[in-house]
Backbone:
């Protein structure tokens, strides 16, 4: 890749995963982020969708939903119980090792619940070729009512009831395995976490050292982007 500026942006995007997410609920619009409006939200035709990786980050949503600039997206901060956000066993077409979900009893992961329109959901699904969309039922996913306050799992009197079922993207390749166990995203600080955690540069370096030790990290990322990603990743072991 001859253009060093373009190469630098590619590497920056890969290393920056899962990208900054707000610490509160928000309305994603073409004008930028706004507060959710007071009173009931108009959600006709919109089904809840769990957002836990790039789909919770405004910069990623801007790329994925660019074709629908006039359609707003409510995104509500939430707390998902008995799951953790872990690395998937693949490298994405943009060079990152992305996230997936894994059951983890006793863990409470900070996530978001988005309410996309039908057209927005189609765009989001099209951006996830390495994922399948599945429905989680009977879960405890509590929507935030303030910075640190979460509703009970089902609150019929709330303008937004915390869902007991929600759709979520799951990796088609399973979870990355290190020494036979899963690895959580350090950037997503779950409570009661039982898994070891790594940040994105660490997990990319792990893959590089195991798979292409003759490349430096930047070369490794650019090679994966050129090849359209890599799947599935093998089980890794520590030295």
Residues:
């Amino acid at each position: 890749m001859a253009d060093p500026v373009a190469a630098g942006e590619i590497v920056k995007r890969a290393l920056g995963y899962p990208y900054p997410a707000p610490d509160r609920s928000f309305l994603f619009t073409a004008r930028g982020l706004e507060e959710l409006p007071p009173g009931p939200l108009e959600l006709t035709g919109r089904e809840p969708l769990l957002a836990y990786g790039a789909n919770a980050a405004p910069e990623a949503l801007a790329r994925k939903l660019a074709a629908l600039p006039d359609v707003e997206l409510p995104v509500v901060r939430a707390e998902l119980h008995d799951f953790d956000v872990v690395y998937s066993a693949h490298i994405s077409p943009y060079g990152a090792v992305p996230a997936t979900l894994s059951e983890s009893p006793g863990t409470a992961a900070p996530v978001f619940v988005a309410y996309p329109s039908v057209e927005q959901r189609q765009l989001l699904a099209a951006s996830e070729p390495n994922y399948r969309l599945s429905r989680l039922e009977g879960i405890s996913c509590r929507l935030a009512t303030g910075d640190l306050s979460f509703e009970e799992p089902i609150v019929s009197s709330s303008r937004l009831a915390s869902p007991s079922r929600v759709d979520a993207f799951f990796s088609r390749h399973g979870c990355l395995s290190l020494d036979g166990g899963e690895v959580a995203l350090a950037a997503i600080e779950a409570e009661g976490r039982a898994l070891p955690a790594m940040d994105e540069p660490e997990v990319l370096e792990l893959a590089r050292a195991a798979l292409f030790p003759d490349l430096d990290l930047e070369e490794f990322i650019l090679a994966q982007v050129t090849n359209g990603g890599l799947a599935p990743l093998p089980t890794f072991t520590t030295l």
